[in-house]
Design a protein that fits this description.
By secondary structure, the chain is an alpha+beta fold. The chain is built from 13 helices and 21 strands. Helix 4 crosses helix 6 (125-138) and helix 6 (125-138) crosses helix 9 (209-225).
């Protein structure tokens, strides 16, 4: 059972929605944010270091203070306005002709602490602390987290009915991805959504582990300071957009390495043949065709690497993952890269950049080899979360990203 509720979204008026909504704070650096930010962009609130000349330290007190001042200004100017009543919202994203429909809602922090909201990644304390400061200072969840829930026919029917009407927002961002929002104003429908989710056993963090952990910490902190706490205060809830798992697609998250651990390309290929069937594919890009098949770009050529039976464990939710297979058989065993979190000899490239980015980084001489992986499935993610396991670093990449600023949850008194 999970606890959710509708909320009074703070959001832009229709005419400003496309400009206010921005990419999330963690997918672009400060210089990129400065380049993208127009006058009303939410980037001034989620990356306010760009308001300083030169760009300020994003963890400085003056930057945290500017974030609060900007949020207040945006509301004062009417660029962000709060809905009069609590609603659920349907948020649709379209990428390359495929649309996924999520529900913007508020989730209870205690469900995260109890494990009813399941995670699959570890968080870094420094990043968690940074997000916690923002939530605490703003008394709001400015950016939503990205959750998944087990497919539910009744929710599907409610969403299908809601999207028959004209959307509140309908815009295409600069990256070509479409974003639409509908407001579910019917009270009975909202009440029914809340009831249905009481029967859903778990939610799954797809993207936004640090924001989820930070929101839960703020909820617990507010609880500790309130002697009259009852568990239904607005601070108990945080913002999520939650999608049916069956609609989501995870794209590949690939690896590039700076050196071959003293080996020549020919020696590396010889060592790979101990654990893989190696096929040279030539100059044309090769994409992995199935689980346990990898693509490698080395010395101007693409290769297919298929792990030999017995080198992986399909009965282990972690052992079945290709990130585990690659780490065990190549990165650790051959290249002596032990810790993906700390090693400076490896970097990670989201599949959204394409295989051409892997080739570019090797051909430039910056990297010596690149490995492309078959994407993790949502079922694999769910299996890992359900068994209490943690995925290796840089395993999942969800696209499209939620646009920040489409809806905001404020719990300010």
């Amino acid at each position: 059972m999970v606890r959710i509720k509708p909320f009074r979204a703070v959001r832009p008026p229709k005419e400003h929605a496309a400009e206010v909504a921005s990419r999330p704070y963690d997918v672009l650096n400060s210089a990129e944010a400065l380049n993208e930010a127009t006058e009303r962009s939410l980037l001034h609130i989620i990356k306010p270091e760009i308001d300083f000349e030169p760009i300020a330290d994003e963890h400085s007190q003056e930057v945290y203070d500017r974030a609060v001042a900007n949020f207040r200004r945006w509301r004062r100017e009417g660029w962000l306005q709060q809905d009069p009543e609590e609603y659920y919202y349907v948020y649709a994203q379209t990428m390359e002709g495929r649309t996924q429909y999520g529900l913007a809602m508020c989730c209870h922090f205690e469900d995260y602490l109890s494990g009813a909201i399941k995670k699959h990644e570890l968080t870094r304390p420094d990043k968690e602390e940074d997000r916690m400061i923002h939530v605490r200072n703003q008394q709001a969840n400015i950016e939503p987290v990205f959750f998944a829930y087990p497919d539910n026919d009744e929710i599907d029917a409610i969403v299908a009915e809601a999207v028959k009407s004209a959307p509140e927002y309908d815009f295409t961002a600069a990256d070509g991805f479409g974003h639409r929002l509908w407001v579910i104003r019917d009270r009975k429908t909202n009440d029914r959504i809340t009831e249905i989710f009481k029967g859903i056993p778990a939610l799954y963090v797809a993207d936004g582990h640090h924001r989820t952990a930070a929101a839960a910490r703020v909820g617990a902190e507010c609880k500790s300071k309130n002697p009259g706490h009852c568990g239904e205060e607005e601070y108990c809830y945080f913002l999520a957009v939650t999608f049916p798992a069956g609609q989501l697609r995870i794209i590949d998250y690939n690896r590039v390495v700076k050196d071959l651990n003293g080996l020549t390309p020919a020696q590396l290929l010889d060592k790979l043949r101990e654990s893989f069937t190696v096929e040279e594919k030539g100059a044309e890009e090769y994409r992995p065709a199935a689980l346990h098949n990898f693509s490698m770009y080395l010395d101007g050529k693409w290769y297919s690497l298929t792990a030999n039976p017995g080198t992986y464990d399909d009965n282990d939710p972690i052992g079945v993952l290709d990130v585990t297979v690659l780490s065990n058989l190549v990165l650790d065993k051959i290249l002596d890269i032990k810790d993906l979190r700390t090693s400076k000899r490896i970097d990670f490239v989201g599949g959204i950049r394409g295989l051409g980015e892997l080739k570019r980084r090797v051909d430039s001489g910056e990297m010596q080899a690149a490995f492309a992986l078959y994407p993790v499935s949502m079922q694999q993610l769910i299996n890992i979360a359900d068994t209490g396991n943690i995925m290796p670093p840089k395993t999942t990449w969800f696209e499209p990203k939620l646009r920040s600023g489409v809806v905001i949850h404020s719990f300010e008194e």
